[in-house]
Amino acid sequence: MDQARTLRHMLGQSQQTIHPILGDLKSGFLQFMSRHVLAQHALQGETALLFDGVPAQQGKVVDLIEFFKGRKSLEDLVLTASQYECVVPAAQGLSALVHHPHEAAHLLKKLHRLPLTCDRLYASLPVKAWELASHFAPQSDWFWLVEPTRESVTAVFHAIRRASGVCAGAQHRIIVVGGKGPDEADHVYASLLETSMSFLQKPLQYCGYLPSLHAEDAASRVAKAVCVSEPMAVA
Length: 235
Fold this sequence. Notes:
The chain is α/β, with parallel strands linked by helices. It has a single domain, classed as P-loop containing nucleotide triphosphate hydrolases (Rossmann fold). It contains ten helices and eight strands. Helix 2 (about 30-45) packs across helix 10 and helix 8 (about 150-165) packs parallel to helix 9. The chain starts with a helix and ends in a 9-residue tail after the last helix.
């Protein structure tokens, strides 16, 4: 570990943060984007870990819920896709935390037990999990995957508005997924930016457009934008 990472690790001990990536758990975009974010950190020589809230499609995995039940330690739950890319299956555990968001403190206080030093931690969450996200990252970046539909835009708008009342210091960043093209994505962002100006201390930031689940180049560009802020170790 180089000196810069060591310093970030030391400073991060008292500033434990899990950055939320919020979207539709069923659309496929959330998992697709999250894995590209991990891959981008790896390209940058940084270790990132995702608490993966997307339910497993097949096979049985040991979930974060086992940690909350006292059956498994965090060390037992980490799966490594590479030296730098780590995942904790967490669909059941995060779902439980959505209903009891104050229990997030139990997880945050145990992050030092992870068997690796992380530059960045993330959690993939449903849009409705804004209260849990406020415990995970009250003063840091949140990433919202928004589809260009009335339902998606409305749900994200109301979630951001409610979140702003409990964690005004967060920076909300918008990723538009699907739809007709970049112009429509720009319109979605502009609409959310304009309507949220009255209650956000920090204006919404645009993080990019992902047209489809097969758009690898676009996903890489968006992932770079997600990873651009200074990483800070919390493990």
